[in-house]
Amino acid sequence: MKLRTRFQRVPLDSLKHQFPVTGLIAMIQKYSTRIAIGLTLFFLVESDLPLQAQTEKPVPKITPGKVIVPFQKMRRIWGELVSVDLKTRTGTFRAEGEDKLYRFSAMPYAEMLHHATSGDLSDFRIGERAIFRMHVNEAGEWYWLTYIQDEMNMLNGHKEYYVVESIEAAKGRIGFTWAKADKSYIREEGLFLETDAETQFWKGGKPAKFSDIKLGDTLRAKTHGIGKGRVRVCWHVFLDDKSLLAFREKQMAVHAGRLAKDGLPSYVDRINDGTVELTLFRGGSSVAETLLTGKNPKALGDQVRLAPAGVNLKPTAEAIAGTVVSCVRAPGATFKLVLKTDGDTGKLRVTEVARLWVAKSP
Hints:
Elements (H helix, E strand, L loop, with lengths): L11 H7 L2 H10 L1 H15 L4 H5 L19 E11 L4 E6 L4 E15 L2 E2 L10 E8 L5 E9 H8 L2 E8 L4 E7 L6 E9 L5 E4 L2 E3 L9 E7 L8 E6 L2 H22 L1 E9 L2 E6 L4 H4 L14 E6 L11 E11 L3 E7 L12 E6 L4
Parallel strand pairs: 3-6, 10-13
Antiparallel strand pairs: 1-2, 1-5, 2-3, 3-4, 5-6, 7-8, 7-12, 8-9, 10-11, 12-13, 14-15, 14-19, 15-18, 16-17, 16-19, 17-18
């Protein structure tokens, strides 16, 4: 039996002839599921909305005061940093695949993945090649930025290398395949690294030379563009993992010092009668981990200080003292922290940024 998706007029006498009353009831009982499906399809076909639009879930939108990363609608664009304003956390980059200039505004919770670990917007050099994760604003422009991931972080995180295929010593040029070390996965072939007088080479965590590079070597690099095309000019070439990880360890120390000085960045979620609820951002997770009251019961009652912060994420007023009531993990690798304070919370604003210092921080 075929179900029609649109009703057609059929003479009543014809129905009586084809389906006596008892037979019609039996038929309805037998095919009730199919009839229901057919009616559903009919109403979907008759609807003005496309079938896809009726079944898709709404895409979350960037919302001030909330940590939201709309993974359903994003672009991760390889490009080179062209300009940055640290006071407003805005800037521009050139998408190397299309030679197009994009403006961006970094969200307060945007991840800055630098030297294969956490960093700050100020760590990135003009011209540096990186991945910019972008989302649309109300005008439909790719504008909101939720991470910058440098080349070193991408290669280290994916366990990928630049496998040397050719060496042109006179030109300082290295041909490579971007792949796993054993080439069990190949991302791209026929690529080149350019080197110049400013390029530094590293092996075993110590300075090396271009001549130390051999065919088949697995390299990693930190590169910059030249303002057009897909050109990789090396600032640093790492001939082994040890050298890259040495840079990573130094960056981790720099970031830890920055968190101790500037505090952990967060959103203020709620203020009520001396109780303040915060969402701590992922960039401060190395310290936030120590405040988890379930994992570390001694964190309960820890002394902390809290201050409001501006667009540049810098404190804008004197910090008030408080104690930790609870701290738990939350979605998006964030942390929900509740503190109690007797201080004046008048300068804190819900949905705005605040900085949190733990006991021994200045």
